[in-house]
Amino acid sequence: MEVIDQIRQTANILEIASQYTTLKRSGRRHVGLCPFHSEKTPSFTIDEEKQLFHCFGCGAGGDLFTLVMEKENLSFSEALRYLAQKYHITLPERKRLSPQYKRLEENILKLTESALAFFKKNLFNTGEGRKALEYLKKRHISDEIIQKFKLGYALNSWDSLISYFQRQKVSPKLLEKAGLVIYNPKKESYYDRFRGRIIFPIFSETGKAVAFGGRSLFDAEPKYLNSPDTPIYKKGGLLYGLNFCKEVIREKQEIILVEGYTDFISLFQAGIKNLAASLGTSLTSEQISKARNFARKKMIICFDADTAGVKAAGRAVSLGFEEGMQTYILRLPQGNDPDSFVRKFGAEAFLKSIEGSTPGLKFLIEMQKRDFNSDIPEEKAQIANKIASELEKISDLVVRDDYIKQTCEYLGIDEGDLRSRIKQKKKEPTVAGKITLLPVEEILLLILFKHKAIAQSLLGSLNLQYLKGLRSEPIFRTAQIIYDKNKRLPEISDVKRELDKSLYSSLSEILMESDYVPSKEEVKDCLEIIKERYLENKRKELRIQIDRLQRNKEEDDKIKPLLKQIADITNQLSAMPQRNQ
Ligand SMILES: [Zn+2]
User: Fold this and answer.
1) What are the two backbone dihedrals, phi and then psi, of residue 272, each rounded to the nearest 5 degrees?
2) Within this chain, do residues 194 and 164 fall inside the same structural domain, yes or no?
3) What is the pLDDT of residue 94?
4) CA 390, CA 281: separation in Å to the nearest integer?
5) 32 CA from centroid of ligand 1 (Å)
6) Least confident of 9-13, 121-125, 126-130
């Protein structure tokens, strides 16, 4: 069986969609807030029976594969791999995109796994490691946490990791690709990246170690050192700890974001588990949208109070505006980070202080007030401009309106004035322009994508020429190419890339909305209607051409062949079965 079919039979779109939004049953369908645009009333719809989704708000839609491609930002073959892995289906080798790169990824993943074991052994079986353990104990990190987070230790040596892998015949070049060693061009040799550091493996969302962070045990700078980007790890591309916390986050619809793994681990150990760490101060939009996948409601940023931390928090608010997420900034008392705070005062106190966290908008305004003096009119105007440019990012007009009012109150400025500073936001991707298709096109599309038994004979007898000028033509053309090339019927996810957004949305909506079951006879009827339409249009065109030639008093032998063509068409048309229209 084709892998695609195998996945289709095993996977369930409802289950996959539930990763991205909370779905409620509504009649025979499930609805929820759309994960592709921000909205207050659910228009994202799943039809479990059809295994399709469609958003009546923004027009996004398709099948299981499109959903995963869009949400996880994957290509079709990557989505295939993602789903195959999830449902334990083995992919045949040839399906993979760039086998070489894939092999490199796999090798690095294996290597990372092996390095993990090495670091762990160092922690428990060496003298240096015992010192590291003592340090962890001193910071009240429990054995259970050390095991759960697979902490390890990198010896304070230039080549202990290199020699460990040399014994396993792993080339330093590959170790370099994995970010574990660094090349020194002067000495033309490699050395260990992590030296004398407690190792915190960085896990992917599925719980695989993909990189490492190291905290110095010997006051070496920097205090924290992370792996560089590698084929399996991209800085700012993941949220640390999601693999442990995503269920709780989804349940609470609320996520607390901290900076580093030590903050994360302290809070986690204290029992706070709707949590993730950005690993670095510069939060990326990728991370925010990952957070939003699990916590639709609320995001609480708890970064250090230093300049970088404050700037990052401001950026988080701004990204929150874009993603339609409520953002709060938790500021801990001077001199505290989440780690030290929770150790001193406990989880209760931490949760209590969340209640008093600053709403994002207020935080942004206060930030500006620190940079500009709001008592000076010119500077106040600058603050107003800055805030206006942030408010522009909010696409929900109700929210934006409320924020405008709040801003005016905070700043003591006129509402009309602030509104005039807010530029009209560029067109939102909501509601792709609708394309209306002819009823006969709709029937043919239903056949093509939903009634495989007839679809084959449809593609077999379809003359693409007759579709000329029809809005659905690109769909059939693409379908025909896929059929000819792969000897299989097209799926909605196949044609997506070839179509413009509004046409694709119309297709998705038709497949979702229509329960009409066309019969085999209808294929013939529909094809004839389309042919008839084509011939009639052609006849009209020819008449116009002839008229023009006659007006210009052209010679008869130019006109004659056209008249002949018209006669042919008329013959063809009259030979066609009569329809009562
Ligand atoms: Zn939508």
Assistant:
1) -95, 115
2) yes
3) 43
4) 20
5) 10
6) 9-13
Whether residues 422 and 438 fall in one domain? no
8 Cα–ligand 1 center, Å: 23
CA of 216 to the centre of ligand 1 (A): 46
Per-state percent for the chain, helix, strand, coil, to nearest 5: 55, 10, 35
Residue 95 maps to a domain: no
H/E run at residue 55 = strand 52-55
pLDDT for residue 503 is more than 90 = no
Whole-number Å distance, alpha carbon 54 to ligand 1 midpoint, is: 8
* Residue-by-residue DSSP string for 156-217: SSSSHHHHHHHHTT--HHHHHHTTSEEEETTTTEEEES--SEEEEEEEPTTS-EEEEEEEES
Q: Which residues surround ligand 1, an ion (CB under 5 A)?
A: 34, 36-37, 55, 57-58
**Contact criterion met (CB below 8 Å) for 14 and 48:** yes
Ligand 1 centroid to residue 425 C-alpha, Å: 18
Does residue 439 sit in the same domain as residue 412? Answer: no
Asked whether residue 132 falls in the same domain as residue 110, the answer is yes
Last residue of a domain, one of 196, 226, 256: 226
Query: Do β-strands 209-216 and 358-359 pair in parallel, antiparallel, or remain unpaired?
Result: unpaired
**Total structural domains in the chain?**
5
Ligand 1 centre distance from Cα of residue 56 (Å): 7
| Strands annotated E in 268-392 | 275-277, 298-302, 326-329, 358-359
CA 36 – ligand 1 centroid, Å: 5
Ligand 1 center from residue 371 Cα (angstroms): 38
| 163 alpha carbon – ligand 1 mean position (Å) | 53
Q: Is the pLDDT of residue 122 over 90?
A: yes
Taking a C-beta distance cutoff of 8 angstroms, is the pair 404, 415 a contact? yes
Q: From the CA of 35, how far away is ligand 1's center (Å)? A: 6
Ligand 1 center–CA 24 separation, angstroms = 16
Q: What is the pLDDT of residues 381-390, one digit of tens each?
A: 999 999 998 9
Surface-to-core class of residue 224, CB atoms within 10 Å of its CB (0-12 exposed, 13-18 middle, 19+ buried): middle
d(CA 260, CA 82) in angstroms, rounded, equals: 28
Q: Distance, CA 340 to ligand 1 centroid (Å)?
A: 42
Residue 118: name the closest of 163, 183, 172, 177 by CA. 163
234 within domain boundaries: no
Strand 326-329 and strand 298-302: pairing? parallel
pLDDT, one tens digit per residue, over 347-382 is: 999 999 999 999 999 999 999 998 888 888 889 999
pLDDT in tens, 76-110: 778 888 888 888 887 765 433 456 767 888 899 99
Is 187 found in the same domain as 110?
yes
Q: Which is more confident, 313 or 431?
A: 313
